[in-house]
Amino acid sequence: MIVCSCNAITDRDIHAAIDWMRAADPETIITPGKVYRALGKSPDCGNCMSLFLSSMRQNANLKVPAELRGLKDHRKRG
Hints:
- The structure is a single chain.
- The protein starts with a strand and ends with a helix.
- With about 80 residues, it is mainly alpha-helical.
- The chain contains four helices and two strands; from the N terminus they run ββαααα.
- It is about 45% helix and about 5% strand.
- It has a two-stranded antiparallel ribbon.
- It is elongated, with a radius of gyration of 14 Å.
């Protein structure tokens, strides 16, 4: 399914980029901007962002790595 018509990005492209980034760096925080850059594209009009984010959230590799979870809470205590 086409998610971003400006750049012809599909949901499969998004999942492939997320999987590639997670394999390359298991501790990376994956953002929409990083997905666009991994695909060699840049956002244009932004109308796709809600669908883009929805597609990203469907990927199991999007989760924040366990060692990075709770850092904000830890910083408040310290």
